[in-house]
Amino acid sequence: TIKIEPGDERAVTPQAQQQAIKVLQRRLDSLGTSDVSISPQGEDRIFLQIPGVGEEKRKDIENTLAKVAKLDFSLTHQNRFLAQQVVAGSHVEPGWKALPYAPEADKDGNPMPSRGYELVKIKPDMPGKHVTSASAFFGPEGESISVSFDSEGSNIMAALTQGNVNRQLAIIMDNEILSAPNINEPFSSGCLIT
């Protein structure tokens, strides 16, 4: 059983609990675990059962799950074709790295085809330490994430988005791209990602 601790005085909401389950499921999937049972338990806990796992694998899983999720933001490279060349090893782009999109499932939970890779800066344009809150919810346009920044992050994001309208901004967690929407207009204090 995993206890959710939001890190401040706020209570754990059902939405935060579901968001934590999604993060844990994504991390478990990346480890190649199978037959995993993961579900909410009470108001602030998540029940996790992984049958047939040895002691060494269990420790690896615990270490992976104990990492705090951190969102980073990075502009994507303007030449989308370079990502596949970097992944294939036929090209090196100094200052950039290729990251995969996070796996997605359809409404029935079936895996969807991979969305491929994007080149993002090795050093993110806006590190996650400036994110003050992030919450997922289901809105009119489907699953959305609302993100707020501290004052330094607001200044960084304002400058970044002001000079890069119509560029893609990758939202990265655990070395996977959650989304890479176009910057339609400058923003600073927070954003809604759909």
Secondary-structure blueprint of this entry?
Blueprint: E1 2-3, H1 14-30, E2 37-41, E3 45-49, H2 55-66, E4 71-75, H3 81-88, E5 96-100, E6 117-121, E7 131-139, E8 142-149, H4 151-162, E9 169-173, E10 176-179, E11 190-193
Antiparallel strand pairs: 1-3, 2-3, 4-9, 5-6, 7-8, 8-11, 9-10
Short description:
This protein is α+β, with helices and mostly antiparallel strands. It is 25% helix and 29% strand.
Outline: globular
How many domain modules?
A: 2
Tally of strands:
11
| SS content category | alpha+beta
Number of helices: 4
Average pLDDT works out at: 80
Rg to the nearest angstrom? 18 Å
Distance between the termini: 31 Å
* Helix and strand element order: EHEEHEHEEEEHEEE
Physical arrangement of strands within the biggest beta sheet: 1-3-2
